[in-house]
Each structure stands twice: as structure tokens, then as C-alpha cells.
Amino acid sequence: MLGPYEGKVKELLDRMTTEEKLGQLQQLTWTGDTGPGGGQTEHTEAAARAGLLGSVLNIHGAGHTNALQRIAVEESRLGIPLLFGLDVIHGFWTTFPIPLAQAASFDPAVARLDAEVSAKETRSNGVRWTFSPMMDVTHEPRWGRIAESCGEDPYLNAAFAVAKVLGYQGSADGAELASEDRVAACAKHFVAYGGAEGGRDYNTVDVSEQRLRNLYLPPFKAALDAGAATVMAAFNTVGGVPAHGNAHTMNTVLKGEWGFEGFVVSDYTGVEELIAHGFAEDGADAARLALNAGVDMEMVSTNLADHGKELLADGRISTDRLDDAVARILRLKFALGLFDAPYTDESAAVDGPTPAARAAAREAGARSMVLLRNEGSVLPLSPDARSIAVVGPLADSTDLHGTWAGPGVYRFPSVSVLDAVRAAAPGADVIHAGQEVAEAVAAAEAAEVTVLVVGEPPALSGEAAVRSDIALPAGQEELIAAVAATGRPFAVVLLNGRPLTLGSWLDSAPAVLEAWHPGMEAGHAVADVLFGAVNPGGKLPVTFPRAVGQIPVYYNHENTGRPYRPEQPHEKYVSKYLDLSDGPRFPFGYGLSYTTFTTGEPELSRTGVAVDALERGETVEVSVAVTNTGELAGDEVVQLYVHDVAASIAQPVRRLRGFERVTLAPGESTTVRFRLGAEDLGFWTNDPAGTFTVEPGRVDVYAGTSSAARACRTLTVV
Ligand code: GLC
Predict the structure, then answer these.
(1) Pocket perturbation via mutation, ligand 1, pick of 55, 87, 203 by most ligand atoms within 8 A of CB
(2) Would you say 84 and 144 are in contact if contact means Cβ atoms under 8 Å apart?
(3) Cα dihedral 243, 247, 250, 255 in deg (nearest 10)
(4) CB-CB contact of 479 with 420 (8 Å)
(5) Per-residue pLDDT band at 537 (split at 50, 70, 90)
């Protein structure tokens, strides 16, 4: 991506003063009328005019970006253009489902389309860099940012990270970065942010080298292989060393082992926070530690700009390292075309969601939904129903974009479930009731069928939105129980940004649809699934615990020396709770359909393979037959898992190593094929220098439609 610009970068570097170099490492926030920030607008303009600013975040709108860009390009000494960045996590004007929902589609094309629509909207509004995709694997449903992740599995997070990076940037070689409908991506948060103790945001992460490399790092490596132009450091410590000052993760792994040529941006005041972490003495120390560990650009706090000259003078940072950081930033600015065309054509701005973009968001929403229960025949609803009650606290909500929605959230409310049901069943008498129980019960008793819309408002997930209890918010379980007590048919629609503990009401609910926060077209996406226009085919990208006390509970867990054995439920000395049934409420990879499917055994192209053959690139093909045995067309996600049953590092009982979502007509069959290579069968050890190993021994290969798959064939690695 960056090779062709070396000459231009060097020529510019040679002309820059130390102050101008330090200025390129500074990103400030915009507090104009286009978004929140820290009161830095006047300072931002002055710094741009003095040529002491590299980037600005929280700004959008070509009028605003061009005005600031003109100051930097036409009034500063060297005219180095600014790089504008913004959090476009799942949409700019057109808000797609939250990333956790998109992951539930098990269809990376959903994420790629989000990224492509978002890139076009973002770039045309003056911004050429998004702080996305977030790829923090997490086993913590209390953590609010699980909504922004792709869940608990590294392989799934990696697949979606790659899809987003390619959607934002185009080809992996960076050749499209200068085009009018691409933006630079940012792989975040580096690294292991999702491991925060207690799920409490910004909290300690103490992780072994093997778990760092087998669980948290793989999505970042995949994103970089797809050409991710930038990386953002994480707020947490990693084994006692804050990520913003962690030379092992940034210098040794990211820039050393992986050869990352882009740049690392700090998170918001993350460099300053090295002081609070108890890692830096003061601002100068924080600047030194961050720069020397691998941070290239400082977001909002100004320690590098304030103290860089003195740090250089007394040799605490080197000119080489300073030049390296500046070069990394300049290379991306050249690659984005900023030097050739620093301004945005205001007449070409995409000023709102196009019908095609809305349709894409609607389809993404429906593809992301997971049918958790469907006893009897409540779903799909009949569009000829004479009367439908739509009740619950979120029934008429238009705030369903989810956390980290883009600027569109301020201009384009979500479509409510209530309005969408009315549109989907124009002949029905649609009765609306809120959370008031008597009113809801009356509506349920008066209707043929009830849609009960409950869950979390988006404010209950996202950054700094950690819940110590992940049950439905107060009053909602009572509401469900009251509607259930009417004996009338009903379906529960969950709108939430995280796994929830689903209470005793679950068994009395004939149908439960996990709809997440589906974005701008929320209501229509829900109605498409409720009325069967879309047969739900999503799967859970995260485990649903039985109780908050069970956390952490996740599918890719170690077996322990005393695993619980379902066939021996009363066995005492095993890993279980005295007061809770074993296992999750719903496992990773779980999801139903309006039709039924069967999957066959995983047939291996060979039952044995040599380590050196794998290391030479040979693979084992695994084929799995799948049949639609029901009356309706539908989607199934065939999943492939491996378990290395005896290894020098205790291996997870399942590791996802392949998935494919297929659409089958009633009675139709197909065979899904996967390939297992060294990277699928091996694992990283605890060697800090990074040792990946494929060991001889038995590997059980599972295939099925969730992580609870039992169909198994054994592969022997020799
Ligand atoms: C926030 C988030 C990060 C975001 C940045 C800029 O604190 O941690 O994901 O990109 O600040 O808004």
C-alpha cells in the first residue's frame, strides 16, 4: 500500500522542522456543530494554520472539512493536508445493524456491504478515515462494547474484520484508497480490550501469551493481511503493561512479526491515561513511553506535541523513531490522495440514505436475526390476520440504531416495529400498548396474536455502558408473564445490544426472535421475519448465559480435568454450580428456522495427515451434506469445529474453523466443503517470541448447526 510514496515522504520529511514533525503526530477533536468533542476548535484552527496538526476527528460535512483543510493546505508553511477521522462503525447516514448483529448473520457479505455503503457516504462528506472495524473478541456479555464486536470467537471476528476492511478500503494492496468511495480502516482496539475483568470497561486484562495469540490477536492479523491502513491502541493493560505503552504487542508483534507499515493511533486521551495507569510519571514520560512502544499519533491529549522537543533534546526519544512515525502518517495521506486532492466536492455529497442503502440495511437486519424458539405455529404471522397486538416498551421505539450509530442517528429515526407491522398487515386491526401491564393484557386478549417487543434501549450498551445484571430491564419479565397468562398466542421480539439472561418466561413464550439493534430499518426488518418474508437464518455469535453468575461462559472453553458429565448429573467433584443447571441457555452458533434441516457427518478426504505435509500447505477437505427437510425455503449455517484432544497447551473443546450459510428450497440438498490446513489445526504456544505449532495426535472434527454439534470424525496428525 505504501511503497510507491517513499520518495515523496522522504523529500517532505527532509523539509520539516521538529515542531512540524511533532505536529503530524497530533490529532485533535472538532467541537464545531458537527459533533461532540473537547472544546478544541479554536486550538484546532490555530494548530492547522501553524502546520502543527496531523489529523482531526469528530468532524464531517465537506463544508466544515474543506474550511479547515484550506487553512492547513493554503496557510501553513508546508501545506500538509489534514486527515479527517470519524467513528463510522455500522453506518454514516444509513445505519446498519450493530456489528454483533451482523456477526449473527454468519454472512460476511453483510458486513462488506455495510462498509461499502458507509465508505461512500463518509468520503463524500469530507472524511477519509473511519475508526472501524472493532474486532475485540470477548467472553463478557456484561461489557457494553460486546455490541460493537463480532462476539466470542476469533475466527468469526476475523472473517467479519476482513469483510469490513475490504468494504471500506477496496483491494488489500491499498490501490483503491484514493478513490472517491473508499476510506481508510482502523483495526481496533489493539489489543485484548474484550478481556476486561468483570466486563467493566477499561479494566485490567491479564492474559497468557497463548491466549493473547490464539484468541485476541487473530482478527487483527487477518485485518492487516486484508490491508488495514491503521490500528488503534486499547485502553486496557495487557499483562500489567498498558496497551498504549506495550512494546511487546505494538513493536514486537504488530510492527515486528507482522511488518505493519501503517500507523497506530492512540485511543481518546489514551496516551495521557498512562499516568492514571501508574505506568508514566507525567505527560513527558507518557509521550516517551507511548512513542517508543509504537504509538504513532496521539488522539486529543497533546503530550507528544507538548514534550517532544525536550524528549528529543535529552535523547529520551530518537529522531529516527520520530521520523518513522511521521513517515507512516504521511504515507497514508499520499495513499488517500490527500496531497493531490485535499478537498471534497461539496456538490457530490451523499446527503442521506438512498433507497438502495435503506434496502441493504433492511436486508442486513433480517439476515442478522436469530430465531431462539418457535413452538407451535405462532411464527410466521399471517398477513391476513384480522387483529394483531403490538405491545411492550420498545413497540413504538424509533431509537433502534444501536450504539455507535453514525451521524444518521440524529436525522433519520429508526422505523418502529409498530409502524412496520401496520405496513406489513394493512388489513389487520393493529392494537398498540406500551409497558403498562393491564393495557398490554387487554390488547393481547383483544387480538388474534400478540407481538411483545422488549429489550434494552441502545443507551444500555456501548462504551462505558456495562451492566452488572444482564436480565431484561425492570418490569419486562412481568409484562411477558402477564401476556403469557392470557393464554393467547404471542411472540417475543428481543431488541438488545448484548446476550441477555432470559428468565423463566422463556419456556412460556411460544416464539422468541433475537433481533438485536437492527439499525435504521429496524421495524421493517423485524416485520419481514415475523411475517415470513424472510425466513430467519442467523446464529448466535455469543453464548447466552443462564445466569449472570455463570459468566464467563463460552463455547471455546477448556475441558478442565473434571468436566461436568451430563450422564452423571449428580457427580459432585466436577466443574459445575450447585445452584444452576450446567451449560448455557443458548450456545454459540445456535439458531432456528421456520423450516428444518439435517446435516450429515463431516466426511474427511483423508483420516491422517503429516505435520510436515500441513506445513508444506497441504490441507484436508471436509465435506458436509445438508438438506432442507421442511416445507419452506430457508437458510442454514453449516459450521465446522475442531478439537485437538491432547496438546502441549490444553485446547478449547471446540474451535470454529469454517462456516457457510446456504439457502435451500424444501427438499433440496447440497454439500458444503471446507479445508483444514496448518493454520486451522495448530496453535500458538506461550513463547513470547511467537511459536506456532502443529502437533501430532488426534483431532476431532465436528460439523453441524451450532457449537453443540456432535457429528464427528477423527483426523490423525502424524
Ligand atoms: C472512544 C473509543 C474508540 C473511538 C474513539 C474516538 O473512546 O474507545 O473506539 O474510536 O474514542 O471516538
Answers:
(1) 87
(2) no
(3) 180
(4) no
(5) very high
Collapsing DSSP to helix, strand or coil, 197 comes out as helix
Q: Answer yes or no: are the C-beta atoms of 607 and 655 closer than 8 Å.
A: no
In this predicted structure, the answer to whether residue 33 has a pLDDT above a threshold of 60 is no
Residue 478 near residue 517 (C-beta atoms within 8 A): no
Listed in sequence order, the residues at least 6 apart from 659 whose beta carbon sits closer than 8 Å to its beta carbon are 106, 156, 159, 637, 638, 639, 640
Q: Which three cell numbers mark 456? A: 434494552
What's the CA-to-centroid distance between 188 and ligand 1, angstroms? 9
pLDDT higher than threshold 90 for residue 16: yes
Q: Is the C-beta atom of 273 inside 6 A of ligand 1? A: no
Q: Whose CA is nearest to atom 12 of ligand 1?
A: 87
Confidence band of 34 (pLDDT split at 50, 70, 90)? very low
Contact in structure between 623 and 673 (CB atoms under 8 Å): yes
Q: Which of 55, 112, 54 is nearest to 85 (CA)?
A: 55
Report yes or no: 592 and 536 within 8 Å, Cβ to Cβ.
Answer: yes
At 2 the pLDDT is: 52
CA pair distance 2, 6, nearest whole angstrom:
7
* CA-wise closest residue to 362 among 514, 534, 512, 496: 534
- Report the C-alpha gap between 243 and 236 in whole angstroms: 6
Q: b/e per residue, 456-492, with b = 16+ CB within 10 A? A: bbbebbbbebbbeebebbeebbebbebbbebebbbbb
Atom of ligand 1 nearest to the CA of 189: 9
Burial of 412 (0-12, 13-18, 19+ CB in 10 A): buried
Please tell me if the CB atom of residue 268 comes closer than 6 angstroms to any atom of ligand 1: yes
Contact assessment for residue 202 and residue 235, using Cβ atoms and an 8 Å cutoff: yes
Residue 1 has pLDDT above 60, yes or no: no
For ligand 1, atom 8: residue with the closest CA: 267
According to DSSP, residue 382 is labeled P
Q: What is the largest CA-CA distance in the chain?
A: 81
Going from the Cα of 464 to the center of ligand 1, the distance in angstroms, rounded, reads 11
Ligand 1 atom with the shortest distance to the CA of 131: 10
Pair 87, 404: CB distance under 8 Å: yes
Task: Kindly provide the b/e burial profile for residues 650-678, where b requires at least 16 CB atoms within 10 angstroms of the residue's own CB.
Answer: ebbbbbbbbbbbbebeeeeebebebebbb
DSSP 295-353: --BEES--HHHHHHHHHHHTTSS-HHHHHHHHHHHHHHHHHTTTTT--S--GGG---S-
What pTM does this model have? 0.98
Q: Which numbered atom of ligand 1 lies nearest the CA of 87? A: 10
Q: Supply the residues annotated as catalytic.
A: 267
